[in-house]
Hints:
By secondary structure, the protein is α/β, with parallel strands linked by helices. The protein has a single domain (13-217), classed as Aldolase class I (TIM Barrel). Helix content is 34%, strand content 18%. Helix 2 (50-57) runs parallel beside helix 3 and helix 7 (199-207) packs across helix 8. The radius of gyration is 16 Å and the shape is globular.
Amino acid sequence: MKKIQISPSILSADFSQLGNEIKRLEKAGADMIHVDVMDGHFVPNLTIGPQVIKALKKHTSIPFDVHLMISPVHKYIEAYSDAGADIITIHPEATEDLQSSILRIKDLNKKVGVSLNPETKTDVILNFLNQIDLVLIMSVNPGFGGQKFMPEVLIKIKELKKIQKKENLSFDIEIDGGINFDNSKTAIEAGANILVSGTTIFKENNGNIKKNIETLKEV
């Protein structure tokens, strides 16, 4: 079993103190920083652009796990790569040619992530799994933080684990959306090895980030 990693979502951080918040996360044992990029078009919200990521990158040495919820995504891949993204995750629905976008990310020497919304079936990515570094399973409808976890998506993680074992593949399985101390265990048991969490990490136990990260890793 792969080591469980925690990728805190800075969507729940104090935006007036983002540089310091990222330093706190690294010190508390975060494995990477999850950056939700939304365009107000592909999803109904607006967040941060490449310049913010570039500025924040100076504050930490751990990887930036950048989730692009923007459409059309292909023309922005290079900008987010240049800004400092280490993992670039895209949605199949946001590109005209998933193969082309995967190759573009690889050409830039970044890790490739593909995200599946709750209603998106795993069939969409089966032919690409040998080229993907990470599959991100959304356990809420993307666009806003603080939503309730959808347990029905866990079946997709189990499907992917079976395929992974059968075909001897090594991609990471990440889950994002409403992750808390209860459902984190069921997500890990299903086969997820990277957990994205925002509200739980920043708010639980009176904001004790280190304790919250450690608790999320427990099965």
